[in-house]
Design brief:
single chain; alpha+beta; 3-stranded antiparallel beta sheet
């Protein structure tokens, strides 16, 4: 399992989550397009708020994010992934990917 996340993957994951999009667009209407993406300004603000918890490293010229401490990665896995069965994880990831396309 990879221990990093590409910036575009972070934007994709946030854009595929309906709860995140509802929160972001609660005061402003989303753009009138078929694919609704998370605004890059929101991603920049989130990265700023995460501050020291998330490291940005350039790997072969590509920006990738790493958690500052392994404990953060463990908490994220436990909170968001481990409570789902393997079937639910696969189903959630496929439905998110299908909604993105």
């Amino acid at each position: 399992m990879r221990s990093f996340l590409l910036q575009v993957e972070l934007e994709d994951a946030l854009s595929c989550d309906d709860e995140v999009l509802q929160e972001v667009f609660q005061c402003v209407d989303p753009p009138l397009t078929t694919i609704i993406r998370i605004p890059q300004l929101f991603v920049a603000k989130l990265r700023h708020q995460l501050g020291w918890f998330l490291h940005l490293v350039y790997d072969f010229g590509i920006p990738v994010f790493y958690w500052a401490h392994q404990q953060f990665a463990d908490v994220v896995k436990k909170r968001y992934l481990l409570r789902l069965s393997s079937y639910d994880k696969a189903s959630h990831l496929s439905s998110s990917a299908l909604r993105y396309k």
